[in-house]
Each structure stands twice: as structure tokens, then as C-alpha cells.
Amino acid sequence: MASTAASPAFSLLKSTGVVASSASTRARASLLPTPFTSVSARPLGFSAVLESRRFSLHVASKVQSVRGKGSRGVVSMAKKSVGDLSSADLKGKKVFVRADLNVPLDDNQTITDDTRIRAAIPTIKYLIDNGAKVILSTHLGRPKGVTPKFSLAPLVPRLSELLGIEVKKADDCIGPEVESLVASLPEGGVLLLENVRFYKEEEKNDPEFAKKLASLADLYVNDAFGTAHRAHASTEGVTKFLKPSVAGFLLQKELDYLVGAVSNPKRPFAAIVGGSKVSSKIGVIESLLEKCDILLLGGGMIFTFYKAQGLSVGSSLVEEDKLELATSLLAKAKAKGVSLLLPTDVVVADKFAPDANSKVVPASGIEDGWMGLDIGPDSIKTFNEALDTTQTVIWNGPMGVFEMEKFAAGTEAVANKLAELSEKGVTTIIGGGDSVAAVEKVGVAGVMSHISTGGGASLELLEGKVLPGVIALDEAITVTV
Ligand SMILES: Nc1ncnc2c1ncn2[C@@H]1O[C@H](COP(=O)(O)OP(=O)(O)O)[C@@H](O)[C@H]1O
Ligand SMILES: O=C(OP(=O)(O)O)[C@H](O)COP(=O)(O)O
């Protein structure tokens, strides 16, 4: 079962915006590997102080109270967790569980990756083991109205197998037939509602639709981390009609790592950011610059940084309108004392294709007609050396075009390095999207501390945004004087 351990009480400070960021100080460390283009080698270390009577939010089964310097008391608010609900709270109760079972299906309607189903099991199992009647809801894909290929029928056998019970399925998600299926649901039974996005009212967060969903149940559990950045009827709207509304174990674990471990990391803390464009990662880079000690950049975005520094980039991916931004991010890293490392060599190709001619060149040696599609071997070596010094690492975005074997070495090297570090006790967090696919491709997913089940949601959390599906949940309040 997913961990229910309490996280630091300030774990959601940034993402909720309830309080200003905690004060921090940094101590010295020298970590900068020489072959990299460096912004600075400098202070590391961290201390966080929460002042008295500020409010903080986190998701945890137990509320921690935090005493600030010189304070007499603390008020802390935490999101309620399903783990806070006992058998007495759950036995015989109808529980509306919103999960994200948006799994990939092939042309034969066969599930090709059941990660999201497996991730939802601990919460459902906890509920059925405590005698609840589970009304399970999810979306699948982005249907426009009722679309048979987006029916949830293919999910039923796998859900039943993993739960060890026969899961029933409704042909709709609201209405009289659903109501009668709910009425006949036994304690410990699970009813899967049909794709909630078959109704346009779901994505519109229509209050009447939310009310109809809510009317099926006595209480609400949100475990749909992958959809927590959407203010939809089944993720946000229902909470207005169902009390209590609490977080599931998966949602809680995602927040514990993506907010808790990132806001209060064991240091040194490194962030690795890659992917295609700097424009889609601006928020993440800016946010991580506030928290990390080392920032390693890779992927297509590095060429915008190179060009901003006056280097030739050939036909590499460049966002001309982001050159100033790249310069300002480098300056910000310097001002914050973050060691920002750009690769010093790259694998270039004469075309964007798996059978392209390729060679390794220094960052300053990209010729016209060549494009950079991966980080080079010297960069891998230096990235590894930098990562060897860390205690916490978060990774979002591949180092190169890892879908093509010729340009996968940088991404695979990072995946292998993180696996090695994880086995040594370093906290390793894979922040969703293509990095998860890369980790799975290399076969090291099992050893990472945490692999996020949400691409867009994890990105928004790392940017410090508020997730509507989280903020809407009930708070558990503890006052310590
Ligand atoms: N040097 C590069 N040039 C062009 N595309 C790249 C390069 N490096 C990585 N990419 C591409 O970036 C894509 C992933 O980018 P993005 O969606 O931003 O990351 P994520 O899904 O991890 O958030 C991958 O499809 C990869 O092929
Ligand atoms: O797959 C999902 O998001 P992701 O592709 O960002 O991980 C979620 O199920 C959310 O789906 P949506 O982006 O259609 O709202």
C-alpha cells in the first residue's frame, strides 16, 4: 500500500499559495564539474523556518505541527486522507472514488500499460477491506460525446484481477440504472461507472452534473493525481456536495514526493530538466531554481541557451523568441547560487531520422547543416559526477531524441544513474511525461523512489501551481498552542 507517512507541514506552501515561501539559508559546497559551461559554483545547504501562526497545507494521514523560531504555537492545516477514515467511518458507506484510469489501449482494445490501474488499487482495496461500497469513476481519452472506443469495458477484467473481486460496470455514470446498480452494491463491492467524459458537463465542471454524480454516494475520495490539474465535475465540482472529501493514497504519495520532497529535500538537491522546448519548461525551471542546488539541462532546449551565449547551433531546435529568457534564466541561476550545468558536447545528426549520420562535437562546434539530438559522452560523464554528490534528484524531460536508438544514450545514462543512486538511498523522483517512458524503456522503473503517474499534473505541481482537485479537498486542522 502506498505510504501514508506524514510529510513536512510546509509541503504545500508553494502550490497552495497560502503562505509566503519559507525563509532559507544556504551553506557552502563545491560541486562544479569542470567540463561544463557553468554559471557558478556555490552555496548549498538549506534550513527552513516557519513563522508562528502562518498557515500551511499538506496531504498526510497525520498532521504535523511545526514550531517556528521564537514562536509559541502553530496552526497547521492538512488535507484529509482516506487513511484518516476508519472502518467505523466507511462500513456500509457509498464512496465515490475518482481515479485516473486513463490507460493506453491498442487497436484491439487491449491495455498496453496498466500502471495507472495498479496505482489506484491501494485506495480501492483499503475502502473495500473496510466495508465500503466503492463507486469508481474515471475518464478515458478525450471523447466528444459517447464514443464506444472510449468505453471503460476493457478495464474491468484487469481491475477485477488486481482487486481479487468481480468488479461490476455501469453503462452510464449518472441516471436511474446507475442508481439501481449502486443500491444493489454489497459492502466491499466495486461499481465502475462509464467514462465520465461522455458528458460534456464533466469538463465544463457543470454544478448540476456534479450534483448528480455526488448524489450517488455518501463521501468522496480523489485519487486521480493525473487529472488533479483539471477543475472538472468529478475532480472538483463534486466536493461541494460530498463531505467528507478526502485524498486517496496515490494522490497523497504524489504530493509527498513532488511537493514535500522537493520543498524540503535532503541536500544537495539536483534537478534535471530536458525535453524539447524551453518554452514548455520555463515555469518548472524558474520554480526549481528557487529550491535546487544543481540544475542539469539537456534535450532540445539547450540550443536556445547555446545561441543565447553566442554559440552556433546549426539546424538544432531553437526558440528565437526565448533567447532573452534563456539569458535571464542563466543570470537567475547565478544570482541564486545554483550550479547550472549545460552539456559541453552533443551528438549531432545530418537529419532528424533514425538512420541519420551522426557524430559527437563540442558545444562550440556545431556546424551548419547539423542538428543536436543528444548530449555527448563527456557531458554524460560530468552529469554523472555531479549526480554522485546528491541526496535528492528530480528529473523531468529526456536528454535527447530517445525514441531513436542513435540519440538515446544521454537519456538512458541518466535513467541508469538515477537507478544506481536510488539503490544507494538517494531520493529519486521521476516527474512524469517522457522521462517515465525512458525509465521504463531502460527497465529501471522499479528502483526509483517515485515515478509520477501524471505528466501535466506533475509539471504544474513542479511549477508551484495550485491543483484544483487537491485544493478542493477537506482540511484537517490541528492547533498547537
Ligand atoms: N535535441 C532535441 N531536439 C529535438 N527534440 C528533442 C531533443 N531532445 C529531446 N527532444 C524531444 O523532446 C520530447 C519530449 O519533450 P517534452 O514533451 O518537453 O518532455 P516531457 O514529456 O518529459 O515533459 C521527446 O519526444 C524528445 O524526442
Ligand atoms: O493522461 C493524462 O494526462 P498526462 O498525459 O499529462 O499524463 C490525464 O489522464 C489527464 O488527461 P487530460 O490531459 O485529457 O485531461
TrEMBL record:
<keyword id="KW-0809">Transit peptide</keyword>
<comment type="subunit">
    <text>Monomer.</text>
</comment>
<feature type="binding site">
    <location>
        <begin position="139"/>
        <end position="142"/>
    </location>
    <ligand>
        <name>substrate</name>
    </ligand>
</feature>
<comment type="similarity">
    <text>Belongs to the phosphoglycerate kinase family.</text>
</comment>
<feature type="binding site">
    <location>
        <position position="116"/>
    </location>
    <ligand>
        <name>(2R)-3-phosphoglycerate</name>
    </ligand>
</feature>
<dbReference type="Pfam" id="PF00162">
    <property type="entry name" value="PGK"/>
</dbReference>
<dbReference type="GO" id="GO:0005829">
    <property type="term" value="C:cytosol"/>
</dbReference>
<keyword id="KW-0934">Plastid</keyword>
<dbReference type="GO" id="GO:0009507">
    <property type="term" value="C:chloroplast"/>
</dbReference>
<comment type="pathway">
    <text>Carbohydrate biosynthesis; Calvin cycle.</text>
</comment>
<keyword id="KW-0418">Kinase</keyword>
<dbReference type="GO" id="GO:0006094">
    <property type="term" value="P:gluconeogenesis"/>
</dbReference>
<keyword id="KW-0808">Transferase</keyword>
<dbReference type="GO" id="GO:0010027">
    <property type="term" value="P:thylakoid membrane organization"/>
</dbReference>
<keyword id="KW-0113">Calvin cycle</keyword>
<dbReference type="GO" id="GO:0016020">
    <property type="term" value="C:membrane"/>
</dbReference>
<dbReference type="InterPro" id="IPR001576">
    <property type="entry name" value="Phosphoglycerate_kinase"/>
</dbReference>
<dbReference type="GO" id="GO:0046872">
    <property type="term" value="F:metal ion binding"/>
</dbReference>
<dbReference type="InterPro" id="IPR015911">
    <property type="entry name" value="Phosphoglycerate_kinase_CS"/>
</dbReference>
<dbReference type="GO" id="GO:0019253">
    <property type="term" value="P:reductive pentose-phosphate cycle"/>
</dbReference>
<feature type="binding site">
    <location>
        <position position="281"/>
    </location>
    <ligand>
        <name>ATP</name>
    </ligand>
</feature>
<dbReference type="GO" id="GO:0006096">
    <property type="term" value="P:glycolytic process"/>
</dbReference>
<keyword id="KW-0479">Metal-binding</keyword>
<keyword id="KW-0067">ATP-binding</keyword>
<dbReference type="GO" id="GO:0004672">
    <property type="term" value="F:protein kinase activity"/>
</dbReference>
<keyword id="KW-0460">Magnesium</keyword>
<dbReference type="GO" id="GO:0009409">
    <property type="term" value="P:response to cold"/>
</dbReference>
<keyword id="KW-0150">Chloroplast</keyword>
<dbReference type="GO" id="GO:0005524">
    <property type="term" value="F:ATP binding"/>
</dbReference>
<dbReference type="GO" id="GO:0010319">
    <property type="term" value="C:stromule"/>
</dbReference>
<dbReference type="InterPro" id="IPR036043">
    <property type="entry name" value="Phosphoglycerate_kinase_sf"/>
</dbReference>
<feature type="binding site">
    <location>
        <begin position="100"/>
        <end position="102"/>
    </location>
    <ligand>
        <name>substrate</name>
    </ligand>
</feature>
<feature type="binding site">
    <location>
        <position position="230"/>
    </location>
    <ligand>
        <name>(2R)-3-phosphoglycerate</name>
    </ligand>
</feature>
<protein>
    <recommendedName>
        <fullName>Phosphoglycerate kinase</fullName>
        <ecNumber>2.7.2.3</ecNumber>
    </recommendedName>
</protein>
<dbReference type="GO" id="GO:0019375">
    <property type="term" value="P:galactolipid biosynthetic process"/>
</dbReference>
<keyword id="KW-0547">Nucleotide-binding</keyword>
<dbReference type="InterPro" id="IPR015824">
    <property type="entry name" value="Phosphoglycerate_kinase_N"/>
</dbReference>
<feature type="binding site">
    <location>
        <position position="403"/>
    </location>
    <ligand>
        <name>ATP</name>
    </ligand>
</feature>
<dbReference type="GO" id="GO:0043531">
    <property type="term" value="F:ADP binding"/>
</dbReference>
<feature type="binding site">
    <location>
        <position position="197"/>
    </location>
    <ligand>
        <name>(2R)-3-phosphoglycerate</name>
    </ligand>
</feature>
<feature type="binding site">
    <location>
        <begin position="432"/>
        <end position="435"/>
    </location>
    <ligand>
        <name>ATP</name>
    </ligand>
</feature>
<dbReference type="GO" id="GO:0004618">
    <property type="term" value="F:phosphoglycerate kinase activity"/>
</dbReference>
